[in-house]
Amino acid sequence: EKIRYEKNIPVKELIGDRMSKSTYSRFINNKTFLGTDSFLFLIDQLHMTFAMFLQLYTDFFELKYDYTILNHCLELKQVYRLSNLLKKWQLKMGRLSKAEELFLKTVEITLMDLQDETIEGSQIEELNQTYKQFSYWTDYNLKSLKDTMHLLDTEKVIQYTKQIITAIDDIEGNLVHEEVFYVLGRVFTRCLSEGLTSEART
Known about the structure:
single chain, 13 helices
């Protein structure tokens, strides 16, 4: 959106017939995630190559990259590397987007969990309140839930799963759908392991 303003390109000219204005609005407000083809289409409409975009706006991919680091740290239980990741994002406090604020919360809680520290009920409730208010489940929202769901009550997790299923038609992009299936699979397995057969079916 910043580039569009700088280049003085009307929204209608930017999106063409590729997507609706509402889809574009959800995308720039971090409420949905575009597929690769649509994303590259927008870059082309901005009269840029993908290489130019990467060179000028590398921070666009920083959050996605750091979620990858977070997952890697969780798998290998790399506390030191996760601590460094937390420090990096704490330095950005005060100028974070909502998606970045959620990432910071996710890193804080998962690091405490890895270090077997007591996680306060207020911290879990804050995370629950964040998830509860989502009307759209973006790639980043799903990644956060995936990394923290083992800390949440099963009842809450089922509630969020229903929200995700209800809004699934509003989620765009193959990467987002992969996250949806992963989260739903985890919830399904959890329900079965806890004897919640009827919940698993729904």
